[in-house]
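Hi support team,

I've been running sequence recovery on a batch of backbones for a student project. Most finish fine, but this one hangs at about 90% for roughly twenty minutes before it completes. I'm not sure whether the input is malformed or the queue is just slow. I've pasted the structure tokens below so you can try to reproduce it. Let me know if you need the job ID as well.

Thanks,
M.K.
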């Protein structure tokens, strides 16, 4: 294939150019044989290569390693781990002839009900961005493309093909676009995938504001925008808005519409060429990496999937240090009972386009038997069945209760059934199945040593039994080797270190989106910037488990913080935290850095994550952990001014979670920016509350005059001459405004 894109554009006919702008079939771009332009292959996904055996069809997918899903990867807060995962995904892509991996997904977890939450990283844009940057850079450094998705506001599955997400400018920028912005600027993904839904009245695939004004003009993105599958409605409008490639393809109707629109002058040759050039550029990039169909390193990647999974499970509770079940503890014990359908029918990934056909699959029961049966009797009983009627479930429960009574430990595998967590629909509530809740509660009444393992991809309500059981591990959806990692965690061979990247509220009704989820034909994001912990903190709401929370088998003491007390414009803030492992196990601690601004012109959340780090320490070991963040990370989005950093005092908070802040340090931040938003219509009291406004007022009015205006200060400035004519004339008002503008 010719490598000079300009030359290619000259040789391609109008029809051929149009044909490049939609897929050749479900997973491939269109080839132009006359010019030896090959098709390239784009497949899901985020945690495994969903390679379809017959490239023209959807299923079945060939086997590939199913790594832990995004919810788990994120809980590791570990960029090295993301790198390992992404490198392995790139390797499997090469071995399968895949050119572009359709991931990662970085939409915000606005509600725990969101059907695809397991595919997304977090409720926090900063964390999501950092993880996605590492993922994309690694995959692309290995010669495989990525698709950053779903741009944007795919925060629910209900009516996902048509719902209109109504989002005000500030939350749109500060929450729903923020991660995209950072990732686009720092990692430059080969493709961005435009979402199914509408945003403020326009489909994401046809949204000039999002695709042209923001993505291209503001952020400078010049790679390719691809539609989510079948997400293009009006092809001409989409192309004009900046959508290059429609996927999938094979139906020439839209190609013909493009041809006609160019002939009618509705689309310029330039617009057509630009999009075709981006497709050609993608193909050329893909061709640079040699792909060879070969066997996957199955055993090695299964082991890697296990290693990764071990870093992604969150210890939620461990009363009386029941866990881990170390050899020393087991010397005096005889038996363990494993309960739960999910111990055998493992849940390890979600349903939908991200679903991988795993090369292997370990079950919890086998993993526990392998690990413990030489030391203990390992018994199993299902305890519940997701398929069974209430009566049968009662019988299963009664049997489990009888067996559990005289066992040393009871490990219950609970979680959400497959069909409850899937792409395509949201959950109705955040409850576990009724039969599981009852079983856990009643087992806890007959045995004091209950360990609950949860398998689910988003927050669940655990109030029915959380205070009655001793230990709980949130295993998430940990991929094909998750069971092995979990057995190691239970045995203490791995010390859990992961932390939640999504708040677990006490109940669904506490979630800030509750009144506005999922909407009807449109959904209003009424909570604004207050999603996740930003809201729970602001409302001082008790939660079940806060954002950033997770326990370890060891203890960490936060000994000291060294941070500057001043930050000049454009400077990086560098600080260090001294952490000591004061417990008995080697372990890793995830340290979080939050900021808050003392007196912002617009309201800001009490805490915003702006940094994190992970440190591994032996018992008794003490070390400094370096953290840093950019000056720009202090900014918030002002609807009229854009991203601004105001000169102010900020608080830097170092925490073990968003609700466990160990150090708070004041810092003075410089900024040459001054917000000048006062007008004649602004209430006089706001003029007085604003530094520059007050200065301008005081140049014209005396303290006594200001005092006398008293009661009328709530009126707009321009009205004062009417109510306080003795103190303020029309000329005074004009002068105040002039002085203010010149300051
Ligand atoms: C999903 C995308 C996915 C695509 C291709 C769509 O239904 O929303 O995330 O990449 O299908 O499978």
């Amino acid at each position: 294939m010719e490598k000079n894109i300009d030359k290619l554009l000259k040789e391609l006919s109008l029809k051929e150019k149009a044909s490049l702008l939609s897929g050749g079939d479900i997973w491939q771009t269109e080839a132009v044989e006359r010019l030896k332009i090959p098709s390239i292959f784009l497949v899901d996904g985020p945690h495994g290569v969903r390679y379809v055996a017959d490239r023209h069809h959807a299923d079945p997918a060939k086997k590939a390693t199913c790594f832990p899903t995004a919810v788990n990867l994120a809980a590791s807060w570990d960029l090295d781990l993301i790198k390992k995962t992404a490198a392995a995904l790139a390797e499997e892509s090469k071995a399968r002839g895949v050119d572009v991996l359709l991931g990662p997904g970085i939409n915000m977890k606005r509600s725990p009900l969101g059907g695809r939450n397991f595919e997304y990283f977090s409720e926090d844009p900063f964390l999501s961005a950092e993880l996605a940057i590492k993922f994309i850079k690694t995959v692309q450094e290995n010669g495989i493309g990525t698709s950053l998705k779903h741009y944007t506001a795919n925060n629910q599955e209900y009516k996902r093909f048509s719902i209109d997400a109504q989002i005000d400018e500030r939350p749109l920028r500060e929450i729903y676009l923020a991660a995209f912005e950072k990732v686009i600027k720092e990692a430059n993904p080969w493709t961005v995938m435009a979402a199914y839904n509408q945003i403020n009245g326009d489909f994401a695939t046809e949204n000039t504001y999002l695709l042209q004004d923001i993505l291209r003009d503001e952020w400078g993105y010049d790679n390719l925008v691809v539609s989510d599958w079948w997400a293009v409605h009006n092809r001409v409008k989409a192309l004009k808005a900046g959508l290059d490639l429609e996927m999938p393809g094979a139906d020439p109707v839209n190609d013909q519409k493009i041809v006609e629109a160019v002939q009618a002058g509705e689309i310029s040759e330039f617009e057509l060429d630009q999009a075709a050039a981006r497709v050609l550029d993608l193909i050329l990039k893909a061709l640079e990496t040699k792909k060879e169909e070969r066997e996957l390193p199955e055993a090695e990647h299964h082991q890697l999937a296990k290693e990764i999974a071990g870093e992604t499970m969150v210890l939620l509770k461990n009363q009386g240090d029941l866990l881990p079940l170390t050899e020393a503890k087991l010397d005096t014990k005889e038996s363990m009972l494993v309960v739960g359908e999910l111990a055998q029918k493992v849940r390890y990934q979600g349903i939908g386009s991200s679903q991988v056909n795993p090369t292997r699959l370990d079950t919890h029961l086998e993993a526990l038997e392998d690990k413990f049966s030489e030391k203990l009797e390992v018994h199993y009983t299902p305890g519940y069945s997701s398929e069974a009627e209430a009566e049968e479930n009662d019988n299963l429960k009664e049997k489990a209760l009888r067996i559990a009574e005289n066992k040393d430990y009871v490990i219950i595998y609970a979680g959400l059934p497959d069909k409850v967590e899937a792409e395509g629909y949201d959950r109705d509530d955040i409850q576990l199945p009724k039969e599981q809740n009852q079983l856990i509660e009643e087992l806890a009444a007959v045995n004091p040593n209950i360990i609950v393992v949860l398998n689910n991809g988003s927050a669940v309500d655990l109030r029915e039994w959380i205070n009655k059981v001793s230990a709980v591990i949130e295993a998430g959806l940990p991929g094909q080797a998750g069971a092995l990692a979990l057995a190691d965690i239970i045995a203490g061979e791995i010390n859990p270190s992961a932390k939640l990247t999504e708040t677990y509220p006490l109940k669904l009704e506490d979630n800030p989106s509750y009144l506005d989820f999922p909407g009807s034909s449109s959904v209003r994001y009424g909570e604004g910037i207050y999603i996740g912990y930003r809201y729970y903190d602001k409302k001082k709401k008790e939660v079940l488990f806060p954002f950033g929370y997770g326990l370890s088998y060891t203890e960490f003491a936060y000994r000291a913080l060294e941070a500057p007390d001043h930050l000049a414009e454009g400077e990086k803030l560098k600080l260090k935290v001294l952490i000591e492992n004061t417990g008995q196990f080697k372990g890793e601690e995830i340290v979080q850095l939050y900021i808050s601004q003392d007196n912002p012109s617009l309201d800001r959340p009490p805490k915003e994550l702006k940094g994190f780090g992970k440190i591994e320490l032996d018992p008794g070991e003490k070390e400094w952990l370096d953290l840093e963040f950019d000056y720009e990370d202090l900014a918030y989005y002002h609807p009229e001014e854009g991203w601004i950093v105001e000169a102010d005092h900020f608080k830097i908070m170092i925490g073990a979670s968003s609700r466990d802040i160990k150090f708070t340090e004041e810092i003075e931040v410089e900024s040459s920016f001054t917000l000048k938003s006062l007008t004649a219509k602004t209430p006089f009291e706001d003029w007085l509350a604003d530094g520059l406004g007050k200065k301008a007022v005081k140049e014209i009015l005396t303290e006594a005059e200001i005092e006398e205006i008293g009661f009328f200060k709530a009126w707009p400035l321009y009205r004062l001459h009417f109510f306080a004519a003795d103190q303020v004339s029309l000329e005074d008002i004009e002068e105040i405004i002039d002085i203010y503008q010149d300051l």
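--
Follow-up from support: It reproduced on our side and the slowdown came from queue contention, not your input. Residues 171 and 529 are 5 Å apart (CA to CA). No action needed from you.
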